[in-house]
Design goal:
- The chain contains 37 helices and 24 strands.
- The longest helix is centred in the C-terminal third of the chain and has 23 residues, at 895-917.
- 38% of the residues are buried.
- Strand 9 and strand 10 form a beta hairpin.
- Helix 18 crosses helix 19, helix 30 (825-838) packs parallel to helix 33 and helix 32 packs across helix 37 (998-1008).
- By secondary structure, the chain is an alpha/beta fold.
- The radius of gyration is 35 Å and the shape is globular.
């Protein structure tokens, strides 16, 4: 990095050779010389030692927190602080020359130590100094080390900036790199806000050290560092929340400069097309700040325009922090907006397009009014009578810049024509594509997971019943037609109570199985307002159920989670009475959003139909459940809700967003993400939206390639995930280097795909094989060179995630119980024996049923035999019933699983037959005593039981086994000891050792533990 920095104007001085004590933050001599050099006209009237001491004192003061201290010091470095001369006159002194960056004293140093008495000394890898002030701190890791850039960033945040915050008060940004990736961010900022720094003119596929070198050349160029300091490091310390520092992403910086230059050149407009979720609102803030700071714009008026009222509420503090309340305006009425413009107010006006209604013509004819339009594809039209048309008539000489992630080109609206200059390529001033956004990890890809809702309908019976109904009420043809139109619409299908229950049950099951466990939240899009309310009620009902409470207890974060509705409800008298209770005030809505964005808050679902589909930035939204037909840009904006990056407080990194689609919108999604400026398939979404079915198909194909590669390996059993299988695979790969390369390449693809699809039942049968391949790959990885190790390290992340998920994910989508069993000769033999046990023998006149029974049919036969032959309520009945329940929970996936299922069913059937023949004998089915005891305690639990049944069962199992291990004189004494031990456990849990569930528990223990 030092080598790359020298040609850009940085001089190198080793950290140990710097003119400073290790306790000092500032190179006082260089700072003094720079101030003298940069202020020749006034410097003679100053005591320079006093000036330098005052600056150093400001740098070392961090009482208000690092963000506020950083803001104050950067204001000083920008030349905004005045100093009092010996003549009593105040002057603003220039500390840094921003116009000529290389005229400053620029130094890069390695191994810079900082220490004070009583603290552990720390050493920064690299520090970039300008005029003696440490503007950039860099922490680097070796490309061959296990730690990566994130570890370097954590050291800056958690160690350096925490222990020595005063070294970071002049800091513009910090940099973390491992030689393969480089990220920059504000010291102390969450890791998901650390970003790469590239150029939209460069190759998107640049990676590795070449990418890092290019990033250094762009980001650590003195001009960029000083530009960031002068114009782009913004703060929100105005109160009302945590202090924040904002740094730009490189596309925001590029676009803001292009807008600035277009305004200075007296250009009229420009279209900025940045992928949804990549920060267009902040881009507008950066552009406005740049324009306001430039005296050549002659005190402009910047209008931040939206079609919603909350456009810059989250960033309005940036302007009030920088300029004060007098320069930031949010008119509450159209009259107030007209008054501001008529009075020639300067600064920033944040408003909506609706307030320009009836504004009239030539409200303000100034040329330095710049309108920055958010979501420029909406409400913007060239029609004179439209709101946008009225705005343009009111501001005839204003300059208009449109920001959008979904420009529209159709008969009604043409965003390109309205905002795009003809001289710009494709009429776009600046473009930040979907693929670049994903490459930069500024957004995450969205996976489309189809959950189609099917239903059956007997058309003829329905028509006949309707005709009979119409006849009974003597309806004529027009009346019949009216009713058919009213109730024959899609609404009737969506409002069907059975469908509502089915969809909401699937939503809750899907959410609890994965999304909730990772700390993410969910949004549900319903067909209309009434259904949004119905879905909210049903989801809350299901979340209060036993299954949900089990998951909540397992995760241990919440006692209860909830859903809330957010729909548009007006305060007009004509509003439906049923909707009025759901009207949210502005304060209520902001509170609801705040709770949704708070990881630990129990509000986990927001149910909507139109609101919160744009402008609601919720990084912790992991899944969107879509049950509403949508098209074009509305669909595009909706499906981008989960594409924001996020890292949970527990460290979970969100790598993909999920859209669960109940409408089968896959084709419509592909149309929605088409690039209007491209021809043919090249205009698709650049990998932004992926159909789960496509991922499953790709996984299967890749898995098959590895199977084919290993087809001729002697003694390999892909279903046996053990040391011997791994050894055989590695022996083959060691002897065939080309095969090892093919294997590694295909496994890395599997590893990237698996975390996205591992809950899909279509890939469950590959789990053992995937685990085996992963073990073989890990062994190869351990043997590889240092260079290869670093390249492959990132690929092991999904494997680790899979190991974690295997232990925390207990839910899956169940296969149909009616799925036919695939049997070979061995299976047919077992089946015949099983049927002979559980089916009555056919009469001579009856032909034997040759049809293979379904899994459900087999279990029903066994259950019927159980109910017939074993006394209900007995320990024997409970044990057998538990085994049948476990069988029902099994998923039948392939022939091997079917055989295991049948063999297990046969064991249960034999136990039932044996129980019929020998009712006094105990039946030992298996060693899963805890599972059976848990079910017994649950089934007989007294009201108010507060302990977890499984905890009690595990302790009984442990105590009984320990008791049985002791020496006993005889069986009777042993049995009494077991009963006493069991009773002691019940008493410890404040349960009476009489009645239920004690009686059934003891009966089971005696039947299954005490067999001689």
């Amino acid at each position: 990095m030092i080598h790359w920095s020298l040609p850009m104007g940085w001089g190198f001085t080793a950290g140990r050779s710097l003119p400073r004590e290790t306790t000092q933050t500032v190179l006082a001599g260089q700072l003094r010389d720079a101030i003298v050099r940069l202020n020749p006209e006034v410097i003679d009237g100053f005591d320079m030692d006093a000036v330098v001491e005052e600056i150093i004192a400001t740098v070392n003061a961090v009482e208000g927190g690092l963000v506020r201290a950083n803001e104050q010091v950067l204001e000083l470095l920008r030349g905004h602080k005045e100093f009092r001369g010996s003549d009593g006159v105040w002057h603003a002194l220039k500390v840094i020359d921003f116009e000529h960056p290389t005229t400053n004293t620029l130094v890069v140093s390695d191994e810079v130590t900082i220490t004070i008495p009583g603290k552990t000394p720390r050493r920064f890898d690299l520090v970039y100094w300008a005029n003696g002030l440490p503007l950039v701190v860099v922490e680097v890791k070796s490309p061959t080390a296990k730690s990566g850039w994130a570890d370097a960033a954590r050291e800056i945040n958690d160690v350096y900036a925490t222990e020595y915050p005063w070294f970071f008060t002049p800091n513009v940004f910090a940099v973390a790199s491992d030689g393969l990736k480089l990220r920059f961010g504000a010291a102390g900022a969450p890791l998901n806000l650390w970003q790469p720094f590239r150029s939209t003119d460069d190759d998107e596929n640049l990676s590795g050290q070449a990418d890092v070198q290019r990033s250094v050349e762009l980001l650590l160029n003195p001009a960029t560092v000083l530009d960031m300091l002068a114009n782009f490091a913004l703060f929100d310390t105005s109160g009302g929340g945590a202090d924040k520092k904002y740094l730009p992403r490189y596309p925001q910086m590029e676009a803001a400069h292009l807008i600035h230059r277009r305004v200075l050149a007296d250009g009229k407009k420009g279209l900025v097309w940045h992928h949804q979720g990549s920060g267009k609102t902040l881009l507008m803030v950066f552009a406005a700040s740049l324009l306001l700071a430039d005296t050549r714009t002659e005190s402009p008026t910047i209008i931040l325009l939206s079609d919603r009222t909350q456009l810059v509420r989250q960033t309005s503090g940036v302007f009030t922090s920088a300029m004060g309340d007098a320069y930031f305006h949010q008119p509450s009425t159209s009259k107030e907006l007209r008054s501001l413009l008529a009075d020639d107010v300067r600064g920033v006006i944040s408003t909506t397009v609706h307030k320009f209604a009836d504004a009239g013509k030539n409200l303000s004819t100034r040329r330095n009014i710049i309108v920055l339009v958010d979501e420029a594809h909406r409400t913007q039209s060239s029609e004179e009578e439209s709101l946008a048309g009225q705005m343009r008539a009111a501001l005839p000489h204003a300059k208009f810049f449109g920001m959008t992630g979904t420009p529209v080109r159709n008969l009604a609206t043409n965003t390109f024509a309205l905002f795009g200059e003809e001289t710009d390529p494709n009429r776009v001033l600046h473009r930040y594509s979907v693929s670049r956004s994903l490459q930069d990890e500024a957004t995450v890809p969205v996976m489309l997971d189809p959950h189609p809702v099917t239903f059956e309908m007997n058309d003829q019976a329905l028509q006949a019943e309707f005709d009979q109904f119409a006849d009974e009420f003597d309806l004529d043809d027009p009346d019949r037609e009216t009713l058919s139109r009213k109730f024959g619409r899609l609404t009737s299908v969506f409002a069907n109570p059975e469908r509502i229950h089915t969809v909401c049950q699937d939503i809750v099951d899907h959410y609890l199985a994965g999304t909730y466990r990772n700390g993410l939240k969910a949004q549900v899009v319903a067909y209309n307002r009434e259904l949004a309310v119905a879905y909210t009620d049903k989801i809350n009902e299901l979340l209060a159920g036993f299954e949900a409470s089990q998951v909540l207890a397992e995760v241990g974060k919440h006692d209860r989670i909830t859903a809330e509705v957010n729909i548009h409800v007006s305060d007009a008298k004509t509003e439906e009475a049923a909707m009025r209770p759901y009207r949210l005030s502005e304060v209520d809505e902001e509170d609801q959003k705040r709770r949704f964005l708070t990881p630990d808050d129990p509000l986990c679902f927001l149910v909507v139909t139109a609101k919160l589909m744009t402008g609601f930035d919720a990084p912790n939204e992991g899944v969107l459940y879509l049950d509403k037909p949508m098209k074009a840009h509305n669909l595009f904006q909706t499906i981008t809700r989960p594409n924001r990056t996020w890292v949970s407080p527990a460290g979970f990194v969100k790598t993909t967003g999920v859209v669960v689609d109940y409408i089968s919108l896959a084709e419509e999604v592909q149309r929605a993400v088409v690039d209007p400026t491209s021809e043919g398939s090249a205009g698709k979404g650049g990998g932004f939206v992926t159909d789960l079915t496509d991922l499953v198909a790709e996984f299967r194909t890749t898995f098959a390639r590895i199977e084919d590669l290993l087809a001729d390996v002697d003694g390999l059993d892909l279903t046996a995930h053990g040391y011997e299988s791994v050894r055989v695979i590695n022996g083959f790969l060691d002897a065939n280097p080309d095969a090892a390369e093919v294997f590694s390449k295909n496994y890395r693809l599997l590893a990237r795909l698996y975390p996205l699809i591992n809950t899909d039942k279509r890939v469950a049968k590959y789990q053992d094989g995937f685990g085996l391949f992963g073990s073989a790959y890990t062994t190869l990885f351990k043997k590889s060179s240092d260079e290869e190790r670093k390249e492959r390290l990132g690929e092991l992340g999904p494997m680790v995630l899979e190991i974690i998920n295997a232990h925390v994910h207990s839910f899956s989508v169940a296969a149909s119980q009616e799925e036919a069993l695939v049997l070979d000769a061995q299976g047919i033999t077992i089946l015949k024996e099983l049927l002979a046990l559980v089916r009555p023998k056919p009469d001579k006149d009856d032909s034997e049923d040759k049809r293979p029974p379904s899994a459900a049919e087999i279990l029903d036969q066994i259950k019927a035999a159980l109910e017939k032959g074993v006394e209900p309520g007995s320990a024997k009945y409970t044990a057998l019933a538990e085994r049948i329940r476990q069988l029902r929970d099994r998923i039948i996936q392939n022939a091997q699983d079917a055989l295991e299922f049948l063999a297990e069913a046969l064991r249960v059937a034999r136990a039932i037959v044996n129980a019929e023949k020998h009712p006094d004998e105990a039946v030992v089915l298996d060693d899963d005593h805890v599972g059976v005891l848990t079910r017994i305690i649950h089934d007989h639990a007294p009201p108010g039981l507060t302990v977890t049944e499984r905890n009690l069962a595990e302790e009984i199992d442990h105590v009984v086994k320990r008791t049985l291990a002791q020496s006993w004189d005889n069986a009777e004494a042993r049995n009494r000891g077991v009963r006493r031990a069991t009773a002691a456990v019940f008493r410890r849990y404040m349960l009476k050792p009489v009645g239920e569930p004690y009686g059934s528990t003891v009966a089971y223990v005696e039947a299954h533990y005490l067999v001689d």
